[in-house]
Amino acid sequence: MKEKFNLIATAAAGLEAVVGREVRDLGIDCQVENGRVRFSGDVKTIIQTNLWLRSADRIKIVVGTFPAKTFEELFQGVFALDWENYLPLGAKFPISKAKCVKSKLHNEPSVQAISKKAVVKKLQKHYARPEGVPLQENGAEFKIEVSILKDLVTVMIDTSGSSLFKRGYRTEKGGAPIKENMAAAILLLSNWYPDKPLIDPTCGSGTFCIEAAMIGMKMAPGLNRSFAFEDWNWVDKDLVRQLRAEALSQIDQDIQLDISGSDLDARLVEIAKKNAEEAGVADQIHFKQMRLQDLHTEKINGVIISNPPYGERLLDDDAVTQLYQEMGQTFAPLKTWSKFILTSDEAFEAKYGSQADKKRKLYNGTLKVDLYQYFGQRVKRQLD
Ligand code: SAH
């Protein structure tokens, strides 16, 4: 089959650079674009990126790119791609997604149907099957995606299966959980390092704390789940086993992290504990039921990360205003602590009572949110 692949890691808007940094940290050269990071590599690269990238959504193989303004051009373009190098006889290959933006071809269901026909025809030809007889599709699944942007078609195969934010540790979620890869990305964007204390005073189902513990312990985020590529006949099972075993052996069980999560809702605290156990990081996190207004600490140079309720989702306006005000008052004495607060409330700073040092626009699903960043004052070293 194939040795070299053109690959992309998809990323939520605003997080591309974080994904790019993670790809480079794996020793892979890449280009950061809108919504995606491009790189190339072999089967090992596909396995490693799926296993290790904390902030990406999915890893996809780019099968080919070509211009098309008509259905005939689309058909011929898809037909010309080297499908025989990816799809064994018997493969299931739904065209799971078609997306057309600013293009002559805009009817997505037709784009799906034509693309399907073209792949079928190519495989019938390659495997010498009669044209009139449908191909059996009872084997491993290869989800094909067709995206057309300004008449340029990109055809991809998804290697991840379910999206990478699904780590496999979430037993139950609270009312408004943050996606695991978004939580990881925010931690990677922040100035938290595993040697600093971390507090999430509105921890809900515990996502920030769990992701931080996994980062601190060097635990690969994909260890607890499976991927679409694991069913593919040309992916060496021994290599997957070996890379999973290596990832397992890299987990630092001896590190002592200082991570705490608390929430008003005792039921969520129990869920957070269960999730942390499921993730294998329970020993590293101290969860308890507490109002954020009761947060005190003597520690210094820590990081607070919080994703408090936003108006339209969980609380009414007055309650949100009061909560943000009290949050400002509670956090104010913690001068050496950095604070990262994620909310969709555009009046957050006024309610909280101080202007952020930095703001970053992100998307929690389709909801626009801002990450308000307040950097802690450096403690001067005492000279004696
Ligand atoms: N990031 C969390 C979701 C946070 S949603 C996750 O991944 O699951 C906001 C959370 O703030 C809710 O769990 C809610 O119970 C909690 N909350 C609301 N008011 C609070 C208060 N005064 N003190 C502490 N937690 C509060």
UniProtKB/TrEMBL annotation:
Q: Name one matching Pfam family.
A: THUMP
Report the superkingdom from the record.
Bacteria
The answer on whether this UniProt entry bears the keyword Transferase reads yes
For molecular function, the Gene Ontology terms on record are: RNA binding; rRNA (guanine-N2-)-methyltransferase activity; rRNA (guanine-N7-)-methyltransferase activity
Keywords, sorted A to Z: Methyltransferase, RNA-binding, Transferase
Q: Which SMART domains does the entry link to?
A: THUMP (SM00981)
Which part of the chain is the THUMP domain?
A: 45-159
* Protein name per UniProt: RNA methyltransferase
Q: What is the lineage of its organism?
A: Bacteria, Bacillati, Bacillota, Bacilli, Lactobacillales
